[in-house]
Specification:
- By secondary structure, the protein is α/β, with parallel strands linked by helices.
- It folds into two domains: 107 residues, Enolase-like, N-terminal domain (Enolase-like, domain 1); 199 residues, Enolase-like C-terminal domain (TIM Barrel), CATH 3.20.20.120.
- It has eleven helices and 13 strands.
- Strands 5-6-7-8-9-10-11-12 form an eight-stranded parallel sheet.
- Strand 11, helix 11 and strand 12 form a beta-alpha-beta unit.
- Helix 1 crosses helix 3.
- The longest helix is centred in the N-terminal third of the chain and has 18 residues.
- The relative contact order is 0.15.
């Protein structure tokens, strides 16, 4: 942004009802609670930039704690803090994500240069995204899956006991779909090899975070014939080298990296280390997904179905034709 352009910042919270419920190994919820940062330029031409984050209890966050972080840094933002300076002023996490993405948005609107152009994407394209099937009994998960069996890619939430039956039930009703199996740290080490063998037998394309993050060193010695992806075990570039002996793939989420700025650098470093890359999300609206869709343009796996899990999305949201997610319009973000 121009040095002559000053900005005001506003922090708001929103609750978006989920269509039914969303259940993983750690629990279930019926709404997505998000925090939105709005940056407003105060020069002659008014511009507004927005960013959305989803605080996550697993990482010690709450709506209240994220709002406190953002309100604490608000004076610095209004005094001229830059996006680059922000990276050292706030830790990686949901709060920095919302503010970082709001900076990207307002800079694009102020300069009239899209974020995709700024990050070197010549032409954005629709991407095949996973659709998530919540954790439940094998029978209920099969019924959920049957409604979406014609999608190209499904993400199946697992929870430990009973996962053999869940995997088999889902594969039976969706014989042609690519399957991502997401244990969210719930598999016991005693069942790890067995579950990985089952995943290979049903031709899953990916197994995500099978063990707890503080136990994943055990993956170094496991035989695998299916790609294993880190989620809870990876947040930023820090530690990527160590994970190379444990994982084949990493899941980059903006709420973990603390925004698009760090995510872009993480993507580049992960590629240099020969990781496959998934770009994923928390359950949020299209505003949260928009920057991730740009990040995911060259990813191996895309899991950006957050708005599809909501009862309704915000105006000018992303569109999801068939199994695809389309890039954001300028009226939404970037």
């Amino acid at each position: 942004m121009s040095d002559k352009c000053s900005i005001k910042m506003k922090v708001t919270t929103e609750n978006w009802p989920i269509d039914g419920s969303f259940t993983i190994a750690r629990g279930s919820r019926t709404q997505a609670s998000v925090v939105v940062v709005t940056l407003m330029s105060t020069d002659e031409v008014k511009h507004i930039g927005k960013g959305e984050c989803v605080p996550y209890v697993r990482y010690g966050e709450s709506v209240e704690s994220v709002c406190r972080q953002l309100n604490d840094i608000l004076p610095l933002v209004e005094q001229g803090l830059t996006k680059e300076q922000l990276q050292n002023k706030m830790p990686a996490g949901a709060a920095r994500n919302a503010l970082d993405c709001a900076y990207w948005d307002i800079e694009a609107k102020t300069s009239n240069i899209s974020v995709s152009n700024k990050i070197g994407i010549k032409e954005t394209k629709p991407l095949t995204t996973a659709y998530t099937i919540s954790l439940d009994t094998p029978r209920n998960m099969a019924e959920q899956t049957d409604k979406h069996k014609d999608r190209d890619l499904l993400k199946i939430k697992l929870g430990g006991d009973g996962d053999h039956e869940r995997m088999m039930a889902v594969r039976e009703v969706a014989p042609n779909a690519g399957l991502i199996l997401d244990a969210n740290e719930a598999w016991p080490e005693s069942q790890l090899q067995n579950y990985l063998d089952i995943a290979a037998n049903i031709k899953a394309v990916l197994v995500e975070q099978p063990l707890r993050a503080d136990e994943d060193d055990k993956l170094k010695h496991i035989e695998r014939s299916v790609v294993i992806c880190a989620d809870e075990s990876v947040h930023t570039r820090e530690g990527l080298e160590k994970l190379k002996s444990r994982y084949d793939c990493i899941n980059i989420k903006l709420d973990k990296t603390g925004g698009l700025t760090e995510a872009l650098k993480m993507f580049e470093e992960a590629r240099a280390l020969n990781f496959s890359i998934m770009v994923g999300c928390m359950v949020g609206t299209s505003l949260a997904m928009a920057p991730a869709v740009l990040l995911a343009q060259n990813a191996d796996f895309v899991d950006l179905d957050g708005p599809l899990l909501l009862a309704k999305d915000r105006e000018n949201g992303l569109t999801y034709p068939s199994s695809l997610v389309t890039p954001p319009s300028s009226s939404l973000w970037g």
